[in-house]
Fold this sequence. Notes:
Strand order of the largest sheet: 1-2-4-3
Number of strands: 4
Helix content: 25-40%
Distance between the termini: 34 Å
Structural class: alpha+beta
Amino acid sequence: MSSKNCELELYQLIMKPDEDISYVSEFGWVTDNKFFVWVDHIWFKEFMEKLYKIFGYGIFDEGNFNATVKPDSVCIDLNDVLDGYVDIEEVFPKDKYCHW
């Protein structure tokens, strides 16, 4: 990967939406090793495109990922999707972003 700061870009994607668009409606650690983001249906495609831009299409070289479709959002375990690319806990510490 290039010298870009993937951790910062991931943080900005989740915490600082573009043009007043918040792609993620909720996020946090739901267990000791699962960091979920809830992405509104309307923004799912754009959210995924931004992940590809940050980490490249290689994030799915191992295959696909599991997601749960809710009535208003798609729930994704980013710790699973980005395993090996970034340490989610460094970006979102468990003591600050815990849901349990």
